[in-house]
Design brief:
Mean pLDDT: 92
Helix content: 55-70%
Low-confidence stretches: none
Radius of gyration: 24 Å
CATH superfamily of the largest domain: P-loop containing nucleotide triphosphate hydrolases
Bound molecules: adenosine-5'-triphosphate, magnesium ion
Oligomer: single chain
Order of helices and strands: HEHEHHEEHEHHEHEHHHHHHHEEH
Distance between the termini: 38 Å
CATH topology of the largest domain: Rossmann fold
Number of strands: 9
Structural class: alpha/beta
Length: 394
């Protein structure tokens, strides 16, 4: 197998993930899912595998929503996808086409042309009737439908910025209502994305949005690869890239450990060893990792962990979040709320204990930190802690 960090990989090159994929199919029997996980951990790869190798009786439809910036664009993309699926069985989305024709759309030589004025078109009806069309046809065959939607929060954020909070909220409500209407006949959705859905919903709540539009969906965490699959991926890549080594076991162990089990970093480490012509040794793994973490081009895209803090928490709270992470990064043990509160109070950054607790909850939800049994905070990923210290000169 060749190293391909960040590229789309073949389904048979996906290592590990059997367990979570089984869990997802089991959960989908009952309810929809939102995958909650850190960036670059392998979410898209998992849903692509769900799409390419569905469990019997399921029809998965995968869509990357990053490219849609309005509710109408999204509704039409769903309609197009539904049409594509129905056409395989020589069927068509009758209701939606009738609706679009009433708005000025037309069929020309078998090609459906959308109405020329897209503004003010009833996107909610287009979305709902597309799904209804699909369900009517497919459930005849006893098949259940699952939409695998990648980058949902990103699209909602775009819609919010372009069309306003109200439209983003309506879209979330419409999707929820579709899940409620058709849930009993097995209709499901899987949401994922590289930014936290909770941040988008939080910003909508500031605009008086009182609903909990996704609380019917089960949060499914995606964790890094366990040591064994991480080593398996390292072995496959080292062999596939013909990296010579006299210590394969120790080298792959070092790769698995240094990468914290993130397949993206495993691909990067092996790629860098290949490009620099290094032999597979524990020392060389360490050298490559150390170089990559300091690389100003940031091949592992770690600057994102610092850059997103202002967007997520706002410029007012940014200094407190950064100071919390600095303190935990250099501490030799996990830190308690009181330790952190004293630090922040002494430096004059924050003197509200309740706010600190709320911030820590959010920082934990954003996967920077975890709590031990005593409720003390430490970095969830040692690699991130290492990079944080390096990049902040701590
Ligand atoms: N199970 C896996 N086996 C092998 N390689 C993987 C696996 N999962 C991910 N990768 C590698 O990691 C890269 C990133 O994975 P992926 O795009 O799925 O992450 P993501 O969580 O969707 O990232 P983002 O947060 O940016 O959307 C892939 O391009 C591939 O190189
Ligand atoms: Mg992704």
């Amino acid at each position: 197998m060749k190293a391909n960090p960040g590229g789309q990989i073949d389904p048979n090159e996906i290592v590990g993930r059997e367990e979570i994929i089984e869990q997802i199919w089991d959960t989908l029997e009952q309810q929809s899912i939102r995958m909650n996980a850190e960036r670059r951990i392998g979410k898209t790869t998992i849903i692509q595998k769900l799409c390419e190798e569905p469990r019997d009786g399921w029809i998965p439809i995968f869509q990357d929503l990053e490219q849609y910036h309005t509710a109408y664009e999204f509704a039409i993309a769903v309609f197009r996808e539904v049409e594509k699926y129905l056409s395989v069985g020589k069927k068509t989305a009758h209701r939606t086409k009738a609706l679009l024709k009433a708005c000025g759309g037309m069929e020309v030589k078998g090609v459906f042309k959308l109405p020329s004025f897209s503004t003010d078109l009833p996107w909610k009806d287009i979305l709902s009737s597309s799904i209804q069309d699909l369900i009517t046809e497919r459930s005849k065959q006893n098949e259940r439908l699952v939409f695998l939607w990648d980058e949902v929060p990103y699209m909602l954020e775009s819609i919010k910025n372009r069309e306003g909070e109200a439209v983003a909220m309506e879209l979330l409500d419409t999707l929820r209502s579709l899940r409620q209407t058709y849930g009993s006949i097995g209709f499901r959705m899987v949401f994922t994305g590289s930014i936290g859905l909770h941040h988008v919903i939080k910003s909508l709540k500031r605009k008086n949005y009182a609903n909990s539009p996704v609380n019917d969906m089960l949060v499914t965490p995606v964790l890094p690869l366990k040591p064994e699959p991480a080593k398996e991926l390292a072995i496959k890549l080292i062999e596939g890239e013909y990296i010579s080594t006299n210590e394969l076991e120790a080298t792959t162990h070092a790769v698995a450990k240094a990468s914290d089990g993130f397949p993206f970093y495993i691909h990067h480490i092996v790629k860098a060893m290949k490009l620099t012509g290094l032999e597979g040794t524990v020392k060389n793994v360490e050298q490559v990792v150390s170089q990559q973490l300091r690389d100003p081009d940031d091949p592992w895209e770690l600057n994102h962990y610092r850059g997103r803090i202002r967007t997520y928490y706002g410029s007012e709270l940014e200094p407190a979040v950064v100071e919390i992470l600095d303190a935990i990064a250099v501490a030799s043990n996990a830190l308690s709320v009181n330790d952190l509160f004293n630090d922040l109070k002494n430096s004059g950054t924050l003197d509200d204990r309740e706010l600190l607790i709320e911030l820590l909850r959010l920082i934990e939800q954003d996967h920077y930190l975890m709590r031990n049994n005593d409720g003390h905070y430490y970095f969830q990923f040692p690699l991130l802690q290492r990079w944080w210290k390096l990049s902040r000169g701590l």
